[in-house]
Structure formats: structure tokens, C-alpha cells
Amino acid sequence: MNPVVLLAQAMPLDPGRHQVLHPGAPQGSGIESLYWLIFLIIAAVYVLTILSFTRAGTRAHQYATQPLPVIENEAGDRKAKWAVGSAIGITVIALFIVLIASVVTGKKVEGLTSKNPVTIQLTGHQWWWEVTYPNSQADQTITTANEIHIPVKTPVVLLTNSADVIHSFWPPSITGKRDLLPGYSSAVWFQVDQPGTYHGQCAEFCGLQHAHMGFSIIAESLDQFQAWQQQQLKPAAEPANDEASRGRAVFLTHACLMCHTIRGTDAGSRTGPDLTHLASRRMIAAETLPNTRGALGGWILDPQRIKPGVEMSPNPLPPDDLQALITYLESLQ
Ligand code: CUA
């Protein structure tokens, strides 16, 4: 079978994951163009190098089988000098083209500004992303984790920071990398034109679970974005039945409330992700697991088995308590 088809079957493409070559934003398109320019230059250099080696190899073979006397060959020397000279000239020109294209791409990627952007604070933690939509009124501030909702065709500015070590924000199909430095805020501007879910990954080694520090940018229409905002602004849903009530009691009487916030309850710690609307998220544990009952249960019982080194400690709850807790958490739309 065709090896490309075999490869595609072995690695089914997860739509949107790490696709530098399928940009969803003007910033990403600029980076893609630069990629292709450098790729084509390098491909041409590779082909020329291989051709020259092949030619030299064939000639050396001819000389070896029919040794020629060494003679002065002025025409040959001139040719060689001309060849070396033009190779150096082409190299310098190619490097300048790449340099200029890099500067132009950098300006394009960094060039977006707006008086009225969607402002989002992004804080890196070992190993998850805290996402805050600040507002001068505290009760209008949204805090979520690992999923960055934005409206399409609207400039967005991410104000980055880190709570511990250096992380790096990298959504390959949207824009380039930006390091998140503790105590130092920087602004990343971008705008997504195509609705969709774009995956990203921490791109700076930040400890044991660096590879499990994913996030998503969810670009949606302005209406959908505003509906999401309104939903996120609400306090947590009240338990709808006895099972969920018991689950909330389990949450509030165990270690959960030492680290997490659920707005509308006594849980108000900011050490771990805000769980007020946990059930509205697609994934848990920084995009490590799907947000399903089974995955959530496994994560609560023994997060160290799934992400060794993570801050969350195991919670050996009795089965009934665990089921009630999951029911409650999955009701937090
Ligand atoms: Cu955070 Cu790597």
C-alpha cells in the first residue's frame, strides 16, 4: 500500500492540532508563508548540493579509471573561481532574503493593535493555564482554565504571566510562541478569522508534566461568544437533586475546597483551576483527558497516576461519595 496512506492511517489527523500549515489567523498565515519561503530555498540548496556531489563523484570516477597528467588549466581555474564566487554570492543573497522576510513576518505578526480588543489574562501554572477576562467590576470578571474563548474577526490581546516557572504559549495555527515569565507581563495580539477549535501546547520545558500542558482557542461568532460569557458570569448551578447535593457536600468537606473555586459556594481557593463551570469545558487536566464521568472519576481518585508530579493529591473517596461528587461536578454547566 501507498506509504503515505499507511502513515495517515497510523496517525489520524486530529483537526486543528499543531497545524502550522493550516493557519486560522493572519498572524499564522504570515508564519506559514515564511515557512514555505525558507523551505523552498533549503530544498533548492539541497538539490543543487546533491547534483554537485553526483557530478564531482562521476568525474572523480572517470579520473580514477583513466589517470590524466596534471597540467596547468587556466580556463578550468577561472571556471572554478567563478563557480565558488557565485555560490558565495547566492548564499549571501538567500540569507538576506530570509532576513528581510523574517523581519517583515515579525512586523506582520506583531503589528495588530486595536483600541477595543478582547482582553484576556493568561497565567501559566505547573501544569495548566488560567484564563481570566478582567473587568473593572469584580463580579463581571470571568475565570476559567485551559480553554480560551474568543469572538472571530475581533482583535484579541492576551496579557501573559506565569505563577511559577517559564512556560510558553504556542497555538501553532494562530500565531508564534510567546514565553510566559514569572512577574513579567507581555502582550500577544492576534485575530482569528475562521471559527473553530485551535489547539495549543506549552512550548517551554517547565517540569515533569510539560507535555501535558495543552490548551484550546475556541473561536466562535460574536453571538456565541457573548452567550458563553453570560453563562460563565453566572454563579455555579444549584444541585438539581439529592445526588448532586451530596456531591457538593463531598466537595466542600474534602480537600477539593483547599485548592479550587466554585463561585456561589464556600470554595474560593485559587491554587487550582476555577471549577464554577467545569462541565462547560471539553477537556480536563489541561487537555489531557476528555471531560467524561469516567475520566473525571479517575482524575479525582488518582491524578498522580495520570500526571505524576501534579499538585493535586489522590482522593481515595468511597464509591458512593465519588459518584455523587462526579454528578455534582458534571452539573456545573
Ligand atoms: Cu508549561 Cu511547558
Structural class: alpha+beta
What overall geometry do the principal axes of the alpha carbons give? elongated
Proportion of residues in β-strands: 15-25%
Order of helices and strands: HHHEEEEEEEEEEHHHEEHHH
Number of helices: 9
Distance between the termini: 47 Å
- Helical content class: 40-55%
- Main β sheet profile: 5 strands, mixed
Bound molecules: dinuclear copper ion
Beta-strand segment tally = 12
Mean pLDDT: 89
Poorly predicted runs are 7-13
Biggest β-sheet: strands ordered side by side in the sheet: 3-2-1-5-8
Radius of gyration: 28 Å
Write the layout of secondary structure elements.
Blueprint (H helix, E strand, L loop, with lengths): L2 H8 L15 H40 L8 H37 L7 E8 L2 E6 L8 E4 L1 E5 L4 E7 L4 E3 L8 E3 L5 E5 L5 E6 L12 E7 L1 H12 L8 H12 L2 H4 L23 E2 L4 E2 L2 H9 L1 H4 L12 H12 L3
Parallel strand pairs: 1-5, 4-10
Antiparallel strand pairs: 1-2, 2-3, 5-8, 6-7, 9-10, 11-12
Helix pairs in contact: 2-3, 5-9, 7-9
This protein binds dinuclear copper ion.
Dinuclear copper ion binds next to loops.
